Write the structure tokens for this entry.
Amino acid sequence: MMEFLSQPWPWWVAGPLIGLVVPVLLLFGARKFGISSSLQHLCAAGLGAKKPAYFDYDWRRQGLWNLAFVAGLLVGGALAFGVLGAGAEASVSAATWSDLAALGIERQAGPAPREIFGWDRILTLAGGVSLIVGGLALGFGARWGGGCTSGHAIMGLANRQLPSLVAVLGFFAGGLAVTHLVLPLLLGGSVDG
Amino acid sequence: MADPRPAGGRGFPGPLELVGYAAIGAGFAIVLAKSEAISWFRIQEMFRFQSFHMYGLLGSAVLTAAVSVHLLKRSGARARNGEPIVLEDKERTPGMVRYWAGGTLFGVGWGLLGACPGPLYILLGGGVTVYLVALVAALAGTLLYGLLQSRLPH
């Protein structure tokens, strides 16, 4: 059992389990799955009495459940990495390793490449832009668009919402542009494709 | 534009209920971590169309959620605490500007970080502390959106 758990889980096991979070949250407390709203709740909790309208609501009543879910993500992350071997080398395709090698990123274990992500890489172009510009775009974009991968791609598409489909197409447009046009520039290689 | 604040106004969640949400979150985190959805390398592979893995993962998650939502709606089931399960439609704004513009900006962040908000928290919990920089930047981005909201097209 432990051996099975420490292998990477196939998509056809993990995907349905991820989807089940939607009905479990609805049945447990009539809550709609969505993670990026936690960013709004954290801002609302951290700001003083004079807040912009966007953060002026009862974050405890509306957001505490979401922040408890996020606390669970931290605990689950600790368990997955500490006990279940989540830090092992990702089993991505040979083509991906080869593309990344051309960008100067070598095959390695761990969830993110040490050439970009590390405290010692923050002052590099690739490291700084990825973490700081990436984080800003993630937070700003998620709230402007009204949701992230959980709220739009899973909850919204499952509820057949056209706005969510538009948002998901945007997610891919942005991600494709970064992967094929921006990342090669950041890593000092030539633009591919 | 509709009220920008989150919908709600229901009862204040008790401590046991909060533990329940945390447990669901922990389970979700383990599934995401063990299916490598939190891996920058997997996100690269997805945006390079070099494996079915992430598409199978997202597709089967959406399908499972869609069937569940359909059954819940049809059965008129209520939540454990007796509340009705209501899923409002997302507001269709003129030109859907907020969805494609905000969505594309989010995609830029997803591509750069190789992680969306859920994996960001999971990686932090897993001890990849440098993502704290990304979380602080994401909070700054959220704050900036809150300040500019009335001046942005939606």
About this structure: Chain A touches chain B through 137 residues (CB under 8 Å). Chain A has eight helices and no strands.
